[in-house]
Amino acid sequence: MAVSLHFLLILTLITGAESAGTISKVSVKAGASVSIPCPYSSQHRNNVKYLCEGYYWNSCSYAIKTNSQHESEKYSISDDQIQRIFNVTIKRLTAKNTDYWCVVEIKSGRDDGQHFLLSVTKGKRYF
């Protein structure tokens, strides 16, 4: 858990508080969990944020939203409106879990999304 939080902190520092985008690719071992920071601009502080799963923007599926359930067996989401970053956590990763979008819902226009790719690798087993 400490490694995940440390990793998240480093990613937040790299992306910067004023950045409008998220990281684009992360390599993770199968079965592990990953937390992705999704920064957004101050004008969207009160908007709904969500994680969408799928390669194509127009056909991705909602995974989790900030205005509904904040945690499931597979996903969790939290929104730090002061830092203007919402964080999504994806648990028990498999090779099927690769393409996602961090999205801010825009009421009077098209939602604003940033794609990221998870490269899920098989881990070695040690007995």
Question: How would you sum up this structure, described in words?
Answer:
With 127 residues, this protein is mainly β. It has a single domain, classed as Immunoglobulins (Immunoglobulin-like). It has 1 helix and 8 strands, in the order H-E-E-E-E-E-E-E-E. It has one helix at residues 2-15, and strands spanning 25-29, 34-39, 49-53, 61-65, 75-80, 85-90, 99-104, 112-121. The strands form 2 sheets. It has a 5-stranded mixed β-sheet, with no helix packed on it. The chain has a 3-stranded antiparallel β-sheet with strand order 2-6-5. Keywords: Membrane, Signal, Transmembrane.
Which key phrases capture this entry?
127 residues, mainly beta, Immunoglobulin-like, five-stranded mixed sheet, three-stranded antiparallel sheet, 1 helix, 39% strand, membrane, Ig_sub, signal, Immunoglobulin domain-containing protein
Instruction: List how many beta strands DSSP finds.
Output: 8
The percent range for helix content is 10-25%
Radius of gyration (CA) equals: 14 Å
Distance between the termini: 22 Å
Low-confidence region ranges = 1-20
* Assembly category: single chain
Give the integer mean of the pLDDT values: 82
Biggest sheet details: 5 strands, mixed
- Give the topology string: H per helix, E per strand: HEEEEEEEE
Shape annotation:
globular
Overall number of structural domains: 1
What is the count of helical runs? 1
Assign the structural class, choosing from mainly alpha, mainly beta, alpha/beta, alpha+beta, or little secondary structure.
mainly beta
- CATH level-3 fold name: Immunoglobulin-like
What strand order characterises the main sheet? 1-8-7-3-4
SS strand fraction = 35-45%
User: Any idea of the CATH class?
Assistant: Mainly Beta
CATH architecture: Sandwich
CATH H level: which superfamily? Immunoglobulins
